[in-house]
């Protein structure tokens, strides 16, 4: 492999850029890594997410095998932190989930994680009556959850301790990247504005953050209704999936609908204190784009388009993105990158 000290830029400081930067420090120790972004921490889409480890059917890598590898690798990655003494600081916690449906059995199953999580079973008759009337199908499983408002700052401290640099700046042109040998494009929805990737589409989401310390279990119902407890006694209530909507404003009709649907599912929420409302655009693309391209003479590895599943699967896609770069370095070790 190339032994030169590389200058590497990671564009994006959401969960994807943050995970790529961490993987780079592991695989390319001698390189000089700079994360460049115009938004950090709570200003990223990553911090709107509840961060539940639960892939949906719209999540697709280039092949089924790769999709599954990403998910399995990520599960182990998060489990390891969750089992360590860093869990609370890193924002990783175990999460029991009930998922119910009045209309369809399949939405209560999840072939991508049933073999991975420690428990995944059908609900019994009593459990189907836990959340009001009319639930015909239901599953119970144990998964985990990643809170980016804790994970991103925790990861950033480690990144800096290992010599990483951070620049707050908007990347508007490739000429501003000419000092770097290698660039990782982890811009999420930002890739849409920079470029003409017509396959990247926002799926708008809105959630209500509430304080409900008594809640320890997550509940899902039909029509994208979910209640996800977190650390500090707070919970995320959702939601909606609006395809091709760029609206970043809180919509009062969405709020009313989310509140009513969640209170129907979990009536104790009526007494919960509302902390705030949040909107985020899920960067949806089929497949998620993890590939290398030479742009304006610069070696770029793209890693974007994770839709509604970027938090849970970030470690897996970051590993592939860095591997692609390392392979290219090996191939080109005699010549120029
Ligand atoms: C309501 C909602 C609920 C969700 N729930 C879950 C969930 O439960 N589980 C899950 O796994 N996922 C969930 N997601 C999806 C998840 O949030 C995304 O897949 C993930 O955050 C994408 O991460 P990212 O790093 O690609 O993007 P972002 O977090 O948006 O980060 C993009 C970064 O790129 C930077 N950037 C972009 N363009 C430029 C530029 N030109 N110059 C400099 N910097 C730039 C930005 O400043 C930012 O730092 C949810 C999303 C929403 C909206
Ligand atoms: C690391 O990269 C930055 C940005 O290109 C550059 O300013 C700095 O001099 C580099 N440091 C080393 C040791 O190469
Ligand atoms: C985490 O701990 C659980 C329970 O002890 C164990 O089954 C699992 O294998 C551990 N996972 C990892 C990745 O260490
Ligand atoms: C990120 O990818 C998009 C789509 O290919 C491209 O237009 C954009 O210039 C890339 N940005 C960087 C910094 O590589
Ligand atoms: C969680 O709830 C506490 C109050 O218990 C509040 O101070 C804090 O800001 C909340 N955190 C988030 C992320 O909403």
UniProtKB/TrEMBL annotation:
Q: Which positions are annotated as binding D-dopa? A: 226, 282, 308
Instruction: Give residues annotated as binding FAD.
Output: 171, 187
Molecular function per GO: D-amino-acid oxidase activity; FAD binding
SUPFAM superfamilies cross-referenced by the UniProt entry: FAD-linked reductases, C-terminal domain (SSF54373), Nucleotide-binding domain (SSF51971)
What cofactor does this chain's UniProt record say it requires? FAD
Asked if Oxidoreductase is a keyword of the record, the answer is yes
Checking Pfam families in the record gives:
DAO
What's the domain of life for this entry?
Answer: Eukaryota
Q: What is this protein called?
A: FAD dependent oxidoreductase domain-containing protein
């Amino acid at each position: 492999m190339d032994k030169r000290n590389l200058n590497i830029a990671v564009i994006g400081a959401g969960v994807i850029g943050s995970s790529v930067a961490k993987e780079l420090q592991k695989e390319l120790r001698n390189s000089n890594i700079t994360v460049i972004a115009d938004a950090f921490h709570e200003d990223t889409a990553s911090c709107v997410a509840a961060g539940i480890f639960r892939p949906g059917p719209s999540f697709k890598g280039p092949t089924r095998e790769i999709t599954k590898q990403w998910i399995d690798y990520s599960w182990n990655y998060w489990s390891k932190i969750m089992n360590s003494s860093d869990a609370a600081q890193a924002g990783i916690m175990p999460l029991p989930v009930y998922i119910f449906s009045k209309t369809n059995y399949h939405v209560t199953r999840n072939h991508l994680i049933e073999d991975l999580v420690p428990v995944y079973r059908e609900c019994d008759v009593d459990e189907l009556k836990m959340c009001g009337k009319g639930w015909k199908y239901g599953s119970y499983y144990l998964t985990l959850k990643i809170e980016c408002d804790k994970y991103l700052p925790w990861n950033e401290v480690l990144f800096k301790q290992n010599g990483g640099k951070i620049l707050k700046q908007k990347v508007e042109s490739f000429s501003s990247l000419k000092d770097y040998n290698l660039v990782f494009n982890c811009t999420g929805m930002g890739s849409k504005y920079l470029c003409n990737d017509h396959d990247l589409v926002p799926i708008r989401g809105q959630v209500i953050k509430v304080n409900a310390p008594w809640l320890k279990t997550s509940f899902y119902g039909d029509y994208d209704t979910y209640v996800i407890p977190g650390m500090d006694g707070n919970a995320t209530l959702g939601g909606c999936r609006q395809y091709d909507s760029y609206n970043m404003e809180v919509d009062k009709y969405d709020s009313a609908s989310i509140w009513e649907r969640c209170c129907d599912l979990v009536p104790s929420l009526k007494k919960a204190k509302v902390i705030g409302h949040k909107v985020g655009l899920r960067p949806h693309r089929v497949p998620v784009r993890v590939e290398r391209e030479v742009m304006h003479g610069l070696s770029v590895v793209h890693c974007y388009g994770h839709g509604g599943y970027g938090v849970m699967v970030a470690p897996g896609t970051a590993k592939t993105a860095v591997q692609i770069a390392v392979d290219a370095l090996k191939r080109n070790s005699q010549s120029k990158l």
